[in-house]
Amino acid sequence: MSKAAESCWRVSKSRADEIQVAVAANFTAPMRKIADDFEKETGHRPLLAFGTVGKFYAQIKSGAPFEALVSSDKETPDKLVRDGLAVEAARYTYAVGKLVLWSAAPGLVDSKGAILTSGAFQHLALANPKLTVYGAAGQEVLKKLGVWDAVQPKIVLAENITQSYQFVASGNAEIGFVAWSQVVGQDGKIEKGSAWAPPADLYPPIKQDVILLAPGADWLMAMNS
């Protein structure tokens, strides 16, 4: 079992058969596998909801009964701790995200991402920068390259990183910013299409934290008693 699953879910053994987990869209595939493994090992069923952390934050503030959040950033857990809605002691960084410019078409995106400066495309998929850390990272790359103003009319705005991937995979956008984990296989190579990974100095580190929320705090207390 992964550390993410163990950290958030091992406490459920003491109290309940189910735990409600809010999961950032970029972690959809790995979390489904983790949840399946967890249920097989423990008999406890994680109830997963996938979406943007921005929306999850609003829902949690409004009383949504999630017990854990697998975030795509560290800022949202920071805010939840400050709001008294999450448990700082039950939190850690489970991954550092990697941004990639991807196309489903082989050869379209070169190894230096020159397509962005050449403008040789009609549409670019980008997750909403106001709601998603990957979208904000993609926006920062475009600004650092000096092409943000020129590219804006071509942007197809996605609700989250999963939808950004879908726009590109379906051909609704020739290129788009997605998470590295969405397009690479177990061998660490791009499974299909073409891609460019922007240098890390072009966008802030995408630290991704998992944290136990206030409704799950009694589980943590029971585990430590």
UniProtKB/TrEMBL annotation:
CDD domains: PBP2_AvModA (cd13539)
Residues that coordinate or bind molybdate: 161
Signal peptide (residue range): none
InterPro entries: AvModA-like_subst-bd, ModA, ModA/WtpA
Keyword flag Nuclease: no
A single BP term in Gene Ontology: molybdate ion transport
Protein name: Molybdate ABC transporter substrate-binding protein
